[in-house]
Amino acid sequence: MIEIKDLHKSFAEQDVLKGVNFVFDTGKTNLIIGQSGSGKSVLLKSMLGLFTPEKGTIEYDGKPYSSFNPEQKRDLRKEIGMLFQGGALFDSMTVEENVMFPLRMFKKGRKKDHLERVNEVLERVNLTGNGKKFPAEISGGMQKRVAIARAIVNKPKYLFCDEPNSGLDPKTATVIDNLIHELTVEYDITTVVITHDMNSVLEIGENIAFLKDGVLAWKGDKSEIFKTDNEAVTDFVYSSDLFKKVKQAQLQGL
Ligand SMILES: Nc1ncnc2c1ncn2[C@@H]1O[C@H](COP(=O)(O)OP(=O)(O)OP(=O)(O)O)[C@@H](O)[C@H]1O
């Protein structure tokens, strides 16, 4: 569980986060949604320790990040799997080498054991037999699955995903969403996903933080998001055609 309490972050004259409170639950896919510029990435980067908030706390399983010494911060970093926007694979490395990278960085052990773990996670994301290929030789959806395998190879307690579906067709995006959700439940991970994708909200929105201008304007889950009359949320979500259709069907009792 990650708990955010009264988090404030500013840059020069601009207040970006203005007292955000939220609990990201363990074993759930927790989503951060909101318009461009609402502070989603600043929140995630603050959680990663890349930004220092002026006020408020970020607690990892009850322990405030600000109280960690450098060694504890390093240990926490080992427990965070990160899925970057666009996948961010190393083009000059094979799939196997990409997935092995965090193991070699953070874990001692023999290459043979590392390889065993790499093959285990590649099998889990349905990429058995693709280890010797280079990223350019596989599809965008497969590249995302490699990035997921790399993010979970160290058995993280926390998984942070920044726009995991960007650049994917809707069907592949759903496969990726469901894979993230399955792994979250299977490994009991606290997963945090930044997304603009309304399909993702419908598929895996178990605990949603809606940010508007640096404030938590609404929280709830995928069924509640249809029922709320919070204007900021409805403005945002009903700009999506998919949501309009679902809402219409709901009103017609379908
Ligand atoms: N390092 C920085 N220095 C100064 N201002 C920043 C910095 N990072 C973000 N900001 C500002 O903070 C605000 C929120 O940015 P943020 O990237 O969190 O938005 P976002 O909700 O993630 O948007 P998007 O959906 O477009 O990625 C923006 O106005 C941005 O310009």
Keywords:
alpha/beta, 4-stranded antiparallel beta sheet, AAA+_ATPase, 10 helices, ATP binding, Rossmann fold, 41% helix, binds adenosine-5'-triphosphate
Account of the protein in words:
- The protein is α/β, with parallel strands linked by helices and 254 residues long.
- The protein folds into two domains: 173 residues, 3-Layer(aba) Sandwich (Rossmann fold), CATH 3.40.50.300; 68 residues, no CATH class.
- It has ten helices and ten strands.
- The strands form two sheets. A six-stranded mixed beta sheet has the order 6-7-8-3-9-10, with helices on both faces. The protein has a four-stranded antiparallel beta sheet with strand order 2-1-4-5, with helices on one face.
- A hairpin with a 2-residue loop joins strand 4 and strand 5.
- The chain starts with a strand and ends with a helix.
- The model has no long low-confidence stretch (mean pLDDT 91).
- Keywords: ATP-binding, Nucleotide-binding, Transport.
- InterPro entries: AAA+_ATPase, ABC_transporter-like_ATP-bd, ABC_transporter-like_CS, P-loop_NTPase.
- This is ATP-binding cassette domain-containing protein.
- One of its GO terms (molecular function) is ATP binding.
